[in-house]
Structure prediction request, 698 residues.
Amino acid sequence: MSIKLFELLLQASIYTVTISVVSILIGFAIAILLSGMLLSGRGLFVRPAQIFISFFRGVPLLVQLLLIYNLLPGIGINVPSIVAAIIGLSLCTAAYQAENLRGGFASVPLGLVESAEMVGLTPRQTFRRIKVPIALRLTFPALVNEAILILKASSLVSVVGIVELTRMAQDLAGSTFLPLQLFASAGLIYLVINWLVALAGGLIESRLPGVPR
Amino acid sequence: MTFDINVIIGQWPAIVSGAGVTIMIWILGTIAAAIIGFLMAVARQYGGMLVDKALGAIVAVLRGTPFLIQIFLVYYGGPFVGLDLDPLPAGLIGISIYGAAYFSEIFRSGFQAVPKGHIEAGECVGLTRGQIVWRILLPEMTMLVLPPSVNMVVILMKETAVLSIITVPELTATLSAIGSQQYAFVEALSALALFYWVLVEVTGWLGNLAETKLSRFRFFNA
Amino acid sequence: MSVPAIAVSNLVKTFGETTVLHGIDLIIEPGQVSCLIGPSGSGKSTLLRCMAFLEEATRGTIAINGEVLGFTEDSQGRRERISAAANRAIRAQIGMVFQQFNLWPHMTALGNVSEALKTVHKMSRKAAEDAAMAQLVKVGLEARAGHYPSQLSGGQQQRVAIARALALKPKIMLFDEPTSSLDPELTGEVLNVMRDLAAEGMTMVVVSHEIGFAATVGQQIIFLDHGKVLFTGPPQEVFKKPRNPRLEQFLDTYLDRGASMLL
Prediction:
């Protein structure tokens, strides 16, 4: 397989990474909103958040992408397919990240909250100064994991016509009849990207002061 | 925009067939994945360092690459190494191998999480290797691997949808086709989403039930 | 007649079906060091946590320097919850040290001690850190001010925890098994800090298995068994022979842990 083909794959992988990063960030923002709704304790907020999370974790990503891609024009929203793809990925990762955050908050040791109470911090202050920093640190590994999952899941946006890494490999395989080499190369590129993300995640995690033992 | 569900309901034979394929691949694939994964975990635990490293590399590759790429490799690349498969068998193999990688990690963690002390206690009171495995190791492992396994079962069910891309006639492919034929995308896709959603919720609920029933094997408070 | 630092009146605490405290009556005088001793499960920690309002009593009242904490109860047993703000004001007089230290892992020792000064008392960063540093000097850990809890030994963490509580100038210090999570050779450094604190006249209530400490530093020994106060009194009275058989039974397990002076 020629170098030229590999270069094309690499160029396409930039789309993969970009789409993934944007989706993860938007997803994180939405996840914070969802977590807030879940933690609020008020039925008005908790139920819709639970339904959202249940739906986006229960339905395959492919189906979600197809739904959004076909639904938006139906209700009069016409966006480029890349936007539809990012919306789809973001909503999906938001649901998983919200669950991770929920787990992180639940894992904050009760004693740390009690000691905050005893030195006079109000519940709001405790939330801001103690619970949030610790929950985020506890959630970090899951966040890195989710990033890797999204990078892999981005391969599905090929079905709505985005030419990211998988689609490029598909197209090239169709014209060169070298599917083994092309898909193996694409797989290799995914592997390297994921490995780098895991590495970066590990490095950052070791720099974060204090995960509760 | 109108929403006419009858357009879909009219096609119910095709839908049932598609759903049947989905469920069949799901169940067969999951069972195959669990068995292969278990054997891999055993091999890694007791097969020596070389086997462990080799299988470890394979697992890393399977978990680090998208499922779609793996499927494409099997279906489109297969013929080039003498493996000319129809979509359905290719999909089944793909799900089994993908799932096996994840199950092997789940079982491997399970093996290592059973406290050594429990095994040693068994040896001290004179149990044979076989008895230790059957009466101590496996029961304790079951509790440990149950939640991630239920999770995996759900994940594999959702991954079957991806097989529609290589034209396996499962439910996503079937309903998408109906949707485009009848110009009723929204209805078709909504029905599709609902099907998976319900199935996932039910599976999760059953999993919780199983966890509660088996909780007497728990040796720690979770 | 002085107001008691802590007045516990007919305190009952149930968890679901189980009653842990069966009507406790206790007086803790200002400046007094009280040690709560008793077998595991006797309710000592629960009683202490009720004093701190970390647990809500089912019946009975607790008064801190004359002010009722948590719930008021009238003669008919009707209870009324006190506002959160009022509770916080009353609890400001209490400092608590936990068995698990409960230092916040994402802050340094200095950060832990100065946190409440900055956030609650709105002190400037410099003022808060100076005040915090003074406390760390007091417990002998000024050299470790910039360390994170994960970099400190158990004994050091507990001393930071004590400094954190002291930084808020409490009138009463509660200790819930402060040395139970420590390796034996580290308990000494914590007990020394507590000894110094007692010598300065701090009102202290200590739940602990360190009978030696209770016998030498304690001024009031409270023996709790199955949720009831069996008896209280100064150490000379409580520990002198002939002893209450339950106490004798309990002490039998502790003679080799520094309480041999009781023989």
Notes: The CA atoms of residues 243 and 249 of chain C lie 10 Å apart. Chain C has a mean pLDDT of 90. The longest strand of chain C covers residues 18-28. Residues 184-199 of chain C form the longest helix (16 residues).
